[in-house]
Amino acid sequence: MKDEELFVKRILLLTALSTIIILFLVIIFIFKESIPVFTEYGVINFILGTKWNPTGTPPQFGMIPLIVGSLALTLLTLLIATPFSVLCAIFIAELAPSTMRKILKPVIETLAGIPSVVYGFFGLILLVPFIRTHLGGTGFGLFTASLILTIMIMPTIISISHDAIRSVPLEYKEASLALGATHWQTIKNVILPAAFPGIVVGIILGMARAIGETLAVIMVAGNVPQIPHSILDPIRALTSNIALEMGYATGLHYSALFGTAVVLFIFTLILLLIANYFQHKTRVRIGGGYL
Fold first, then answer.
1. What is the 3-state secondary structure (H, E, C) of the chain?
2. Does some domain include residue 287?
């Protein structure tokens, strides 16, 4: 029996180590391929450059328009998706009848599995003409891409927020109601604060999907490497830049796309570290552990 347990532990350890090793190999490969652009073009020029024009004379590989585009897209998406998702999770967990809850929860979880190209096609056929007609511009831009990403990440945030709300001990709710609080006061002052760390986890995972999404963004964002001055302006995200140009890039341009991947990696890592720090600071202590 002990030999079997030891064997299982070693297999699990080997699996965990192989995952870490593969991750480090990918990171090393990306950084290695990006070295030429950092050495020949310059780190400062690459990261702080304001123009991306790899076919120009001389070629320009400025990251600022792509970084600003990705950051604006992510923040606007979270600004729209977070309140709707949390309110929907509250309704499903606390207010919806049990029959409705049994229908809504699987439907929302199914939406998370729809391929991104379907969402992109929906945006291309319906949202782009609607925004062009009613708000102006070409219809391709930051706002359109944010709406599509909002629809894509809402199922993730809703599902995790719902589970976080349902995991709050029933004693909390009963104690609040026993003290004379209404159901809404209990939700606002007791359940939401206790479930907040779990809700933050859902927002983090939604943000990670928004940052990494490529195909749907390519279809509706306009793909112009510029700093947007309006939510209707077209943008190009970091992921879109790699996907659009990797097929024909050579030489320093090829290295610059790997440099874009390095910037995307660091950009994502910083955002996730900030979000995880915020989650850590808002944990609720219960007894000897945390909720």
1. CHHHHHHHHHHHHHHHHHHHHHHHHHHHHHHHHHHHHHHHHCHHHHHHCCCEECCCCCCEECCHHHHHHHHHHHHHHHHHHHHHHHHHHHHHHHHCCHHHHHHHHHHHHHHCCCCHHHHHHHHHHHHHHHHHHHCCCCCCCHHHHHHHHHHHHHHHHHHHHHHHHHCCCHHHHHHHHHCCCCHHHHHHHHHHHHHHHHHHHHHHHHHHHHHHCCHHHHHHCECCCCCCCCCCCCECCHHHHHHHHCCCCCHHHHHHHHHHHHHHHHHHHHHHHHHHHHHHHCCCEECCEEC
2. no
* 70 plus 38 within the same structural domain: no
Residues spanned by the domain of 26: 1-48
Question: Within this chain, do residues 157 and 189 fall inside the same structural domain, yes or no?
Answer: yes
Q: Has residue 74 been placed in a domain?
A: yes
Q: What Rg, from alpha-carbon coordinates, does the chain have?
A: 23
Per-residue pLDDT of the chain (291 residues; tens, 9 = 90+): 677 788 888 888 898 899 899 989 999 999 999 999 999 888 888 888 889 988 888 888 989 999 999 999 999 999 999 999 999 999 998 888 888 888 888 888 888 888 889 999 999 999 999 999 998 888 899 999 999 999 999 999 999 999 899 888 888 888 888 888 888 889 988 899 888 888 888 888 888 888 888 889 999 998 999 999 999 999 999 999 999 988 888 889 999 999 999 988 888 888 778 777 766 766 655 544 455
Task: With CA atoms as reference, report the closest residue to 195 among 239, 163, 226.
Answer: 163
Domain count, the chain: 2
Looking at the fold, whether 96 and 8 belong to one and the same domain comes out as no
Residues 149 and 224 occupy one common structural domain? yes
In a domain? residue 61:
no
